[in-house]
Amino acid sequence: MTKEQENQIITNITQFVRDDDGYQDELEEYQEGMKYDSEKPDYSLIPPHALEETVKVLTFGAKKYSPGNWKKLNSAWSRYFAAAQRHMWALQRNEENDPESGYHHAAHAASCLLFMLELDKTCNSDIIDDNQLTLNL
Q1: Which of 25, 89, 122, 132 could anchor a disulfide with 77, C-beta 3.0 to 4.6 Å?
Q2: Domains in the chain: how many in total?
Protein backbone atom coordinates (compact mmCIF):
# COMPACT_ATOMS: atom_id res chain seq x y z
CA MET A 1 0.00 0.00 0.00
CA THR A 2 1.34 3.39 -0.91
CA LYS A 3 1.59 6.33 1.43
CA GLU A 4 -1.11 8.09 -0.59
CA GLN A 5 -3.50 5.16 -0.11
CA GLU A 6 -2.82 5.12 3.65
CA ASN A 7 -3.54 8.85 3.86
CA GLN A 8 -6.79 8.36 1.92
CA ILE A 9 -7.93 5.62 4.34
CA ILE A 10 -7.13 7.84 7.34
CA THR A 11 -9.05 10.72 5.74
CA ASN A 12 -12.06 8.46 5.09
CA ILE A 13 -12.07 7.16 8.66
CA THR A 14 -11.71 10.67 10.08
CA GLN A 15 -14.57 11.92 7.91
CA PHE A 16 -16.74 8.98 8.99
CA VAL A 17 -16.09 9.70 12.66
CA ARG A 18 -16.85 13.41 12.20
CA ASP A 19 -20.15 12.57 10.47
CA ASP A 20 -21.31 10.27 13.30
CA ASP A 21 -22.38 12.73 16.06
CA GLY A 22 -23.32 9.97 18.51
CA TYR A 23 -19.97 8.32 18.13
CA GLN A 24 -18.21 11.68 18.42
CA ASP A 25 -20.02 12.44 21.70
CA GLU A 26 -19.13 8.99 23.02
CA LEU A 27 -15.53 9.45 21.94
CA GLU A 28 -15.29 12.84 23.69
CA GLU A 29 -16.84 11.40 26.84
CA TYR A 30 -14.34 8.57 26.80
CA GLN A 31 -11.44 10.95 26.24
CA GLU A 32 -12.60 13.19 29.12
CA GLY A 33 -12.91 10.25 31.49
CA MET A 34 -15.78 9.18 33.71
CA LYS A 35 -16.09 9.09 37.47
CA TYR A 36 -19.38 8.65 39.29
CA ASP A 37 -18.69 10.83 42.32
CA SER A 38 -21.30 13.58 42.11
CA GLU A 39 -23.05 12.30 45.25
CA LYS A 40 -19.84 12.03 47.30
CA PRO A 41 -18.59 14.73 49.68
CA ASP A 42 -16.57 17.39 47.86
CA TYR A 43 -13.47 17.95 49.97
CA SER A 44 -12.35 20.71 47.63
CA LEU A 45 -14.93 22.91 49.39
CA ILE A 46 -12.79 23.03 52.55
CA PRO A 47 -11.04 26.41 52.68
CA PRO A 48 -7.34 25.44 52.37
CA HIS A 49 -5.83 28.31 54.39
CA ALA A 50 -8.26 27.83 57.26
CA LEU A 51 -7.60 24.09 57.21
CA GLU A 52 -3.84 24.66 57.29
CA GLU A 53 -4.12 27.03 60.25
CA THR A 54 -6.31 24.53 62.10
CA VAL A 55 -3.83 21.73 61.41
CA LYS A 56 -1.05 23.94 62.81
CA VAL A 57 -3.06 24.31 66.03
CA LEU A 58 -3.69 20.55 66.16
CA THR A 59 0.03 19.90 65.66
CA PHE A 60 0.88 22.40 68.41
CA GLY A 61 -1.53 20.60 70.74
CA ALA A 62 -0.18 17.16 69.82
CA LYS A 63 3.36 18.31 70.67
CA LYS A 64 2.27 20.02 73.89
CA TYR A 65 0.16 17.12 75.21
CA SER A 66 0.37 14.07 72.90
CA PRO A 67 -1.37 12.97 69.70
CA GLY A 68 -4.91 11.86 70.48
CA ASN A 69 -4.81 13.23 74.02
CA TRP A 70 -7.95 15.25 73.29
CA LYS A 71 -9.95 11.98 73.22
CA LYS A 72 -8.99 11.13 76.81
CA LEU A 73 -10.11 14.34 78.49
CA ASN A 74 -12.77 14.02 81.21
CA SER A 75 -15.85 16.12 80.44
CA ALA A 76 -14.33 16.67 77.01
CA TRP A 77 -17.41 17.94 75.19
CA SER A 78 -18.24 20.68 77.70
CA ARG A 79 -14.58 21.63 78.17
CA TYR A 80 -14.00 22.02 74.43
CA PHE A 81 -17.23 24.00 74.21
CA ALA A 82 -15.88 26.38 76.85
CA ALA A 83 -12.47 26.56 75.15
CA ALA A 84 -14.05 27.35 71.77
CA GLN A 85 -16.00 30.17 73.42
CA ARG A 86 -12.85 31.58 75.05
CA HIS A 87 -11.13 31.73 71.65
CA MET A 88 -14.18 33.29 69.99
CA TRP A 89 -14.44 35.92 72.75
CA ALA A 90 -10.75 36.70 72.30
CA LEU A 91 -11.51 37.41 68.63
CA GLN A 92 -14.43 39.59 69.70
CA ARG A 93 -11.94 41.61 71.78
CA ASN A 94 -9.84 42.08 68.61
CA GLU A 95 -7.15 39.65 69.76
CA GLU A 96 -6.25 37.77 66.58
CA ASN A 97 -3.62 35.29 67.76
CA ASP A 98 -3.42 33.12 70.84
CA PRO A 99 -0.55 34.43 72.99
CA GLU A 100 0.76 30.96 73.87
CA SER A 101 0.77 29.31 70.44
CA GLY A 102 0.87 32.37 68.21
CA TYR A 103 -1.86 30.84 66.03
CA HIS A 104 -5.17 32.43 65.09
CA HIS A 105 -7.91 32.18 67.71
CA ALA A 106 -10.37 31.07 65.02
CA ALA A 107 -8.11 28.08 64.26
CA HIS A 108 -8.10 27.19 67.97
CA ALA A 109 -11.90 27.48 68.08
CA ALA A 110 -12.18 25.38 64.91
CA SER A 111 -10.02 22.69 66.54
CA CYS A 112 -12.31 22.64 69.56
CA LEU A 113 -15.39 22.43 67.35
CA LEU A 114 -13.85 19.57 65.36
CA PHE A 115 -13.20 17.69 68.60
CA MET A 116 -16.78 18.29 69.72
CA LEU A 117 -18.17 17.14 66.39
CA GLU A 118 -15.99 14.03 66.40
CA LEU A 119 -17.10 13.20 69.93
CA ASP A 120 -20.73 13.72 68.96
CA LYS A 121 -20.44 11.60 65.79
CA THR A 122 -18.63 8.75 67.50
CA CYS A 123 -20.78 8.91 70.67
CA ASN A 124 -18.04 7.50 72.82
CA SER A 125 -19.93 7.59 76.11
CA ASP A 126 -16.70 7.01 78.03
CA ILE A 127 -15.59 10.44 76.91
CA ILE A 128 -18.72 12.56 76.52
CA ASP A 129 -20.59 13.67 79.61
CA ASP A 130 -23.83 11.74 80.03
CA ASN A 131 -25.87 14.94 80.02
CA GLN A 132 -24.20 16.02 76.75
CA LEU A 133 -25.24 12.86 74.88
CA THR A 134 -28.82 14.11 74.58
CA LEU A 135 -27.93 17.72 73.83
CA ASN A 136 -28.85 18.61 70.26
CA LEU A 137 -27.11 21.82 69.21
Answers
A1: 132
A2: 2
Q: Which residue range forms the structural domain that includes residue 25?
A: 3-32
**pTM exceeding 0.70:** no
Give the whole-angstrom CA distance, residue 109 versus residue 86. Answer: 8
Residues 18 and 65 in one domain: no
Residues 6+ apart with CB under 8 A from 86: none
DSSP code string of 15-60: HHHHH-HHHHHHHHHHHH-----TTS--GGGS-HHHHHHHHHHHHH
Does some domain include residue 91?
Answer: yes
pLDDT one-digit tens code per residue, 32-55: 677 778 889 999 999 999 999 999
